[in-house]
Write a structure and sequence with these properties.
Blueprint (H helix, E strand, L loop, with lengths): L13 E5 L4 H12 L3 E6 L4 H9 L4 E5 L7 H8 L8 E4 L14 H29 L3 E6 L12 H21 L4 E8 L8 H5 L1 H10 L12 H8 L10 E4 L7
Parallel strand pairs: 1-2, 1-4, 2-3, 4-5, 5-6, 6-7
């Protein structure tokens, strides 16, 4: 590995990012583009703002329309490969949450969350890994885990199950694909300012409880994930396999 800034360069790399329209996904896409990567944004709606930010950095941003609740991952990757020679980096960012007491969760709630947060992640990772192996190219897969990959939480049974499963899946794929030069790791964001946390932030009592436990004393901003994303996507992390990296302001430390 080359020392210095070259170790963190993503020049001549293409990164596929799910859920890149807003929030954390947008931050991931812009961070990787700032390090030199071109972007394939996968989601339901065109990522107009993200694409503009990527273009301002001098990088390409192509959109692949897909609903990850009912997606065909091989088709997503095939569509991306119509624009690029290879997908070098995958960021499995898209995720959904349903808040209900465990006694009230129905099968539809469960299936919707697990399909997006776990099933789609596996099969999209598989599709990206297959084209890397076929091309005999190294690659990076970054899953977006959660504090609930470590903890139980309340009123989010399917989400906790999916994110706990994702932590295990990250380690399994790291074990199997490291011999192919594919690094599989995860980032576990703490409490960030996103649509998924809007209800928590609006609850004055709960928000105060959360902030009281975070040593950094604030909610995370999407841009706080940029450094971790670039590190795990770059040659700097070539000997990092199966890690779930918390970016949480110290939440787990307390």
């Amino acid at each position: 590995m080359t020392a210095g800034s070259a170790a963190f360069s993503l020049a001549n790399r293409t990164a596929l990012v799910t859920g890149a329209n807003t929030g954390l996904g947008q931050a991931f896409a812009v961070a990787l583009a700032s390090a030199g990567a071109d972007i394939v944004a996968v989601g339901r709606k065109p990522p107009t703002e993200t694409a503009a930010s990527v273009a301002a950095l001098g990088r390409r941003c192509e959109f692949v329309a897909a609903d990850l609740d009912d997606a065909r991952p091989a088709q997503i990757v095939a569509s991306a490969l119509e624009s690029f020679d290879c997908i070098d980096i995958l960021v499995n960012n898209a995720g959904i949450i349903r808040r209900k007491d465990a006694l009230e969760v129905d099968e539809q709630d469960w299936d919707e969350v697990v399909n997006v947060n776990l099933k789609a992640v596996f099969f999209l990772s598989q599709a990206v890994a297959r084209q890397l192996v076929e091309r005999r190219r190294p690659g990076k897969i970054i899953n977006v885990a959660s504090m609930l990959s470590f903890q139980g939480g309340v009123r989010v049974a399917a989400y906790t199950a999916s994110k706990s499963g994702l932590a295990g899946l990250t380690k399994l794929l790291a074990n199997e694909w490291a011999p192919h030069g594919i690094n599989v790791n995860a980032i576990a964001p703490g409490y960030f300012v996103t649509d998924n946390t809007a209800a928590l932030r609006a609850d004055t009592k709960r928000s105060a409880e959360i902030l009281g436990r975070i040593p950094a004393g604030r909610w995370g901003e999407p841009e706080d994930l940029a450094g971790a994303a670039v590190f795990l996507a770059s040659p700097a992390s070539d000997y990092v396999n199966g890690v779930i990296l918390p970016v949480d302001g110290g939440w787990l430390a307390r």
